Amino acid sequence: MAAQGRARLDSEHESTCDSAHSLIGFAPCDSHAHPVVIYVPGTVQPHDHAFILQVLEALAHQGYAAFSLDYANLWPGQDCARYRARARCMFDPKSEGSALSTLCALPQTDCDRGLAVLGHSQGGLIAILAADFAPQVRWVHAMGVTANPPANLKNLDCVLPKTRRLPADHLLVACGDCDVFFDGTRLNSCAARSPGVSRGLENLTGMRCASQQGCVGHNDTGARFGWIKIPGSKLRDKEADHCYMFHQGCFGPPDKAWMTDPSLPWALPALLDDLKRAFLSKRSIPQQ
User: Fold this and answer.
1) Distance, CA of 124 to CA of 128 (rounded, Å)
2) Is residue 161 packed enough to be buried (19+ CB in 10 Å), middle (13-18) or exposed (0-12)?
3) For the domain with range 2-278, which CATH number is right: 1.20.120.80, 3.20.20.480, 3.20.20.150, 3.40.50.1820?
4) What are the DSSP calls for 178-241, one per residue?
């Protein structure tokens, strides 16, 4: 693996995209150009956090040029207008200063082969909006989100199926059944939050099934789409909270099962299989 040097790029600013930000990533050690996977961190999470670097390195081992993007992700100041502005400054290929334009100009990347976007929390919402600007998007995995707005937001209409450009069969969402930010209830009990998480996932994906734990289909390439609600019983710390991919809290070590267990449908091995399938697609996102 060869770590790409940190580069400066014109990125997120609510109107002009004129502030300099950083990117960091890995690519296979060869002379080829590779399909691109972008990770968008959540609120206050450093784009070079050890967890993110482990994910990027795992992606590079699978043949992707994988990058994490720095942006203005500090609290407060979150709403759909800002999410869309941040997505535009990251993913609009028509903008010379966008992060995607910068990445696609690198010799290690081949954006014509497609783009996949992963993101957590605020980063997951921004990832869903990537297709509003980038027709190269083949698949999105949003972690720790539903359509229930956190307490400081009025709504999340911008990411709903009726509003966004990302088709339902390009999106897989996962959320812990104890997520305190996106359950829509603000209740203390995990059991009380769980039904709200299910409803929020249904509204975000537009998919409803008899099961309250998940509703998943496969698109024309075999990549999964829909939603998965993660039970705490499957995690080492027994709590599927907002940062279920970590072992306790949002800044500790990664949950070992999430990183390595192929039997868990929300864990990294399953996501790597989805990515492999998603890049078989040649379908572009319709742009207005």
Assistant:
1) 6
2) middle
3) 3.40.50.1820
4) T-SSSSSS--S-HHHHHHHHHHHHHHHHT---S-SSEEEEE-TTS-EEEEEEEPGGGSTTS---
List pLDDT tens digits, range 184-242. Answer: 987 778 888 999 999 999 999 999 999 888 999 999 999 999 999 999 887 777 778 99
Count Cβ atoms within 10 A of the Cβ of residue 124 and give its class: 0-12 exposed, 13-18 middle, 19 or more buried.
buried
Bigger pLDDT: 276 vs 238? 276
Chain centroid offset of residue 260 CA: 19
Mean pLDDT of 61-70: 97
Give the β-pairing of 171-176 and 137-143.
parallel
Give residue 5's pLDDT: 37
Q: Where are the domains of the chain?
A: 2-278
Which residues lie below 8 Å from residue 89, measured CB to CB, with a gap of 6+? 10, 11, 12, 13, 17, 71, 95, 97, 98, 99
37-49 pLDDT, tens digit each: 999 999 999 999 9
